[in-house]
Amino acid sequence: xxxxxxxxxxxxxxxxxxxxxxxxxxxxxxxxxxxxxxxxxxxxxxxxxxxxxxxxxxxxxxxxxxxxxxxxxxxxxxxxxxxxxxxxxxxxxxxxxxxxxxxxxxxxxxxxxxxxxxxxxxxxxxxxxxxxxxxxxxxxxxxxxxxxxxxxxxxxxxxxxxxxxxxxxxxxxxxxxxxxxxxxxxxxxxxxxxxxxxxxxxxxxxxxxxxxxxxxxxxxx
Amino acid sequence: xxxxxxxxxxxxxxxxxxxxxxxxxxxxxxxxxxxxxxxxxxxxxxxxxxxxxxxxxxxxxxxxxxxxxxxxxxxxxxxxxxxxxxxxxxxxxxxxxxxxxxxxxxxxxxxxxxxxxxxxxxxxxxxxxxxxxxxxxxxxxxxxxxxxxxxxxxxxxxxxxxxxxxxxxxxxxxxxxxxxxxxxxxxxxxxxxxxxxxxxxxxxxxxxxxxxxxxxxxxxxxxxxxxxxxxxxxxxxxxxxxxxxxxxxxxxxxxxxxxxxxxxxxxxxxxxxxxxxxxxxxxxxxxxxxxxxxxxxxxxxxxxxxxxxxxxxxxxxxxxxxxxxxxxxxxxxxxxxxxxxxxxxxxxxxxxxxxxxxxxxxxxxxxxxxxxxxxxxxxxxxxxxxxxxxxxxxxxxxxxxxxxxxxxxxxxxxxxxxxxxxxxxxxxxxxxxxxxxxxxxxxxxxxxxxxxxxxxxxxxxxxxxxxxxxxxxxxxxxxxxxxxxxxxxxxxxxx
Amino acid sequence: xxxxxxxxxxxxxxxxxxxxxxxxxxxxxxxxxxxxxxxxxxxxxxxxxxxxxxxxxxxxxxxxxxxxxxxxxxxxxxxxxxxxxxxxxxxxxxxxxxxxxxxxxxxxxxxxxxxxxxxxxxxxxxxxxxxxxxxxxxxxxxxxxxxxxxxxxxxxxxxxxxxxxxxxxxxxxxxxxxxxxxxxxxxxxxxxxxxxxxxxxxxxxxxxxxxxxxxxxxxxxxxxxxxxxxxxxxxxxxxxxxxxxxxxxxxxxxxxxxxxxxxxxxxxxxxxxxxxxxxxxxxxxxxxxxxxxxxxxxxxxxxxxxxxxxxxxxxxxxx
Lengths: 221, 495, 319
Fold this sequence. Notes:
Oligomer: heterotrimer
Largest sheet of chain B: 2 strands, antiparallel
Subcellular location (chain B): Cell membrane; Membrane
Distance between the termini of chain B: 19 Å
Domain NADH:quinone oxidoreductase/Mrp antiporter transmembrane (chain B): 123-419
Helix content of chain B: over 70%
Keywords (chain B): Cell membrane, Membrane, Oxidoreductase, Transmembrane, Transmembrane helix
Number of domains of chain C: 1
Transmembrane segments (chain B): 63-87, 107-130, 156-186, 207-228, 240-260, 272-291, 311-333, 367-388, 408-432, 453-473
Structural class of chain C: mainly alpha
Low-confidence stretches of chain C: none
Helix content of chain C: 55-70%
Protein name (chain B): NADH dehydrogenase FAD-containing subunit
Radius of gyration of chain B: 21 Å
Radius of gyration of chain C: 19 Å
Mean pLDDT of chain C: 87
Strand order of the largest sheet of chain B: 1-2
């Protein structure tokens, strides 16, 4: 019989599981638009988790962080990418090298690896149960799979952004007390990276008239 | 001395603002001025870095930071001068004003972010600094807006960002390790983490170190995370390539070294040294093989950068003070030699309008000044005496042979020799082999005019060679003290 | 303790399922029709259908062996056995409830579906064979899902008795909120959609033979045998709903005594809860499109993902 987690732990774990599930959903979905929307949902979940932690564990800085990441990751970033998609007139993600079911199985393996790795670490946290850390590492792993198997710039960029969500989740577990100024700086950095990604996606699209990365094979050796 | 530190952290940024709005001529002038003054500041800061270090607000200068700031400032200075000549060739073309503005602003911002990354006190700020270098340099790689450049920029920004995502995970894990000692609210300051030393929990520190090596190592071009590097270096404009290779890789390696310092203090030397040694040998091996058979001159130099990063990692992995001091000297010498080589290769590539080694022949006849300079720069890069890299590699090998990992020192020598062969034959072919053969004439090589580039593009190479000779023959006393001190900090003696 | 004899309560469990199952099917059909703006059949229509079918003669294809005729009966027997094992009406274990655990129940359900598949394969009719081979193909993925759900249950309760799981869930909100419980319940729900032949796997009561899995298997049956099969699949649906409700989602309202009033109340509540689930299924039926056959692997892979994650979160970190 396993020890029963508290209601707080159960709730936060359930939210963290949903974050992982949205990552899997991104892997499964074929439409670029829904991929971006799933990213927004995932960011919303991470922000919600930050609010829950802030309220229950009394870490007031996290409210500010949640508000900022809500504004940035749920509104601004998806809006930017969706605008790009509207201009690019492309809908279907570059079909991966694997079928969806195999993608899920591979991602499941990678995610499970993350789980086991974290389990070996014996990290304990003041604010969140360690299951959330395992889930965060699994999110990072699955986002790697997403970036590897998809061959279009939007999926790869969204994969990177969601990797950042996974890291945010991990930081909630092990570094909730990180000084606010640093957290804000991280977020600002993300914004800059997003702008650069967006710019390069535009450049790519204007150069090759496609969002696919399948043609990016000229430089080798 | 603290004022100089602030100047170093502020001046390039002022140059960014100015060159973004002012006409190209002003932007050019203030870029050169900012580059040269920064180099002056960095040199003036050497003594205080060597004897005790400085701390102003969240800026912190110790010997380790001093070495890397010096390297970054040097490359900044020479490329800012070189860029004047580089851009002059495009002057008058359509959209030049806009291009030049972007170029100068980007160059200054890039240099600023690199120097700040070295100067900030704290692993989180360090991460932010390195992330800024990524986004700025990605835009600079893409600035030419050719298909190849955008491909290279995309690969670069994706891989480097993912790498930095991993590094961020490492940062957070390190924060966790520190918070078990200092409690929740502390700022990841390096000083504090080093003080905590062995009190940090071991497993998280190890994890953080490995994540940091993989993450920052992606940007430092360690194998197997190096795949973006040849593309970005080859497709970027030459001054940017010089900065990417001469200072950006070094700055990323600086981040790895910071984690190395903390990990060493916390879990002892064996584990972090082993990790660095593994990545270093892999980089050396792969890069030496790629250098041997390369068709593109800029890619050749890029793989040579991977090789040199491998040498650095192996040198630090030896753990001998002599080798560590050699590694720091190597950072400086590599910065000078690699920027030289890129600048020389840039001249060749511009003159022949190709980067393919097999189509560049008889450079000696067409470029009587800059072709021999390029050859000398490549020889300096390939560690021929009396240049700085010879000295540094000699120190590294000597230190390695004296340490417990002598076997790896032998491997190092073998692989460095292999890379030397590749570099030297390619450069000699380009410069010395005459282009008189009919096959080459049919390629249009004969139609290339004899035209030396402006002195703006030659002076920096001369300065670089002078610096290399200085480093190789007789490094100044202050510099030696700085390197010794830096090696001591790496060896666990840092404060 | 006064009240009904234990044997009566015990007998009431399969009886409830037997009697209520066609009604639940009828209710879903009506609800679906109403949502589409049709009047639809009466809720009691399945009972009339069954009555009519039992009065009709029954034909077997030439060459079909006794297995063909035995299959519906065997399936019916299986469906009557399973309710003895799971908490249908009572929160305490009834004597026969300890005959088998949740795995035992699963095996008996599989036996039923195996029997139907073999019976269908006996006929030589292409569509029936198509249905049975398809159902067994996808079952190769849904079976592991069920296993993982059972593992999750076993890890939570330390036993694999459904009664124990229901008791654990009732013990507090912390048990419901744990992610493993939610994930396992979600995985089970997806499997139920598959097993009962609902959208997005298969259009219930459609006439498109090419997309059929579950429905195709009864093609060659007629008369009382066909009645047994339809009745059986309605019972299977209700049994699966009961497991979902009384083990995972809402194990409240079960009778904790043998009082007749309590037991009757439990019957009413069970039917009510099953109707709520049916309503949800009807909504799903009307909101999604049927997946292409080759996409069904993706659907069951999603269920597999949920179930495996349930075990992961539980095993590593007590989630």
